[in-house]
Amino acid sequence: SASPTVVSAFQAPARRSPSDIRSTQAGFRRTLETYQSKCNELVKALLVSSGADSRQKVIQWITDALVINSNAAGSHPDPRKISTYEFLFNLSAVMLKMCDPFISDQKKAALVDPGFVCSPDALRGVYAITGDDALPRLGENVSTDGVTYNPKNSFVPLCFFYCSRALALSIVPDANLYENTLRRLSSLHRHINARGGDVVADPRFNMFLASQHSQEIVMQSPSYVSDVFRYYNLAAGLFLNMPKEQLKTMPEHIIGDICSVLVYGAQFAEKLMAGLDFSNLFKLVVMLLSKDCASLVRNYNVRAELGDVLHDVFLPSNSSDRRRNVPDSVTCDPLQMGQPYLTSNKLALETLAPSLLLLYGEVEHTGYYEKMSYRVKIAALLKYLWECPAHKPAFKAIAGDEESFDTFANGIVNEMNTQYADAIKALVSIRSTQLLMANQQEWATRGEEEREQIEERYANDESQSRNMLALCTSVLKMLGFLSTDDDIRTMFTKPEMRQRLADMLLFVLQKIVGSRGLDLKVDNPESYGFRPKEMLQDLCAVFSSFASDDEFQKSCARSGYYSPELMQKALKTCRKQGLLVGESLDLFTLLAGKVEDAHKALADEEELYDGAPEEFMDPITQEWMESPVTLPSGNVTDLKTIKQHLLNDPHDPFNRSPLNLDQCVPAKELREKMKAWLEEKKKTKGSS
Q1: Quick check: 525 pLDDT over 60?
Q2: Distance between alpha carbon 578 and the CA centroid of its chain, in Å?
Q3: Order of strands, edge to edge, in the sheet holding 665-666?
């Protein structure tokens, strides 16, 4: 956190005017910049004018400072074992100024030799390659064996890579600290208001507000923040031009740091981004997300953060999903007549749509709550690209990449049922709490500790419902526009995906038109994104897209969530509320009838399988196998079952050995045996 001396200058901040706060911050910035300027002059003199011995001592001092403070990049560093917040910021400011000559000169920038990060002698322990302090690299199994490092200029690469490490120890963790401070302030504000307190007079609220204002002296400093953005755009340009063999040796944290700083800027310092060049950063993000680089950036969280950058920084301000005020000078390419990078960059047009579909599935491997936020943003990006004609060829090509599409489709279906069910559960809890808090007499009988617990649960329910409903809404809208394409719609109805898609859609339909769906009431439903009629409209539109697919009709009929009454109630609601009209209404009406017919036919078909030998039934789903395959473990399962399993888990479900689809061999003899048995059963039934 910031210096107590600085924090003390913001006494009782809740009572002070914004202009007064800004004036105090500006005064501190002027003083800070004066000191930093003198410090930069001193360092420059020691490096340039005081001889080789002095130069080496300065470099060694900076090296020691970076090595000793390596833990500052952690999520919860021990303050007793690292330098102060101010020291680390000042160190990064010095390093940025040391880089300034080649940030603004492309010829000098070319002297940054990537081999620096593979030379133990050059690194001096700052980027440890082995041991407990080793920093992960982008690629796997990076070795220094046989690596020779003979730079044209040894000082330039040292400055560049030392600067990236200094930023990783200062602005990167403190951007997270600043966001946490704002989150804590929001929570305190809500709790104080809920118990009828005075926010302006609350000492804890004022303490955190003073901390926020003191952090902003640096975190909102125009000169410092713009230097950081300029540095990272240079770094992106260098990475873009590296051969992949060199790029994979780069420290992984640099990519993560770029993402963190850019997202911070878009959220809290967008005005400071105006007029700066972000073109290399956009190109690097697109390149790293492309399928060619999917194996290069192995960390799924870092890949997900690249998607966040595209959404938070480069999604244009005229997008319906845009929530930030990032200047157009950031999102648009001046070399393309001011067109958005997303719709004018050649590599983006060729690769971004399939890259984002792949990423949507990959974020399954991130945290439970994090993946919801990632997927909402990816869906918003896909929607924006879908509406751009120039991206249509790339979307068409998606259907040709079966593996990537399966990963994406699996990501769409996974946990949708749980997410929507949990969202409804959270809304029910929210409503219960709202009624309790509205009853002042009842609320007053609760002790202060109990009220705080209820308020904390209430805040958690609110957060969860918003995240879950945002994800569910984005999934349905994405399914809606993607399923209008014949080729993509066909991919969704492949055997291994078709039943799960039908189950998911029917489950959500059951929740919406069931007893609690449309009738569930909460205060300010829009604040949670709870729009059941809109969701029903989107859901039924998706159903309509698949109405003419015979196999999808059967999958709906086979689903445990289906009942004729459910679809008829949904149809009646759509007509009454005017949610579907014209062709969409006709198609949904057709589907409801076709599924009901298929449901009756399936009852007859299932009689055929009564008494079937156990070896004919899938051991996982307990259903008749259509295409039995033998696994290396000797176990037999249906092809569609094992395909679906491998989308989530690359192991044999019976013995946990590594498994891929190529190892699954068709069980031809068993299939012939099953065919003969079924034919005999049909004859027996026909003669009875």
Answers
A1: yes
A2: 35
A3: 636-638, 628-630, 665-666
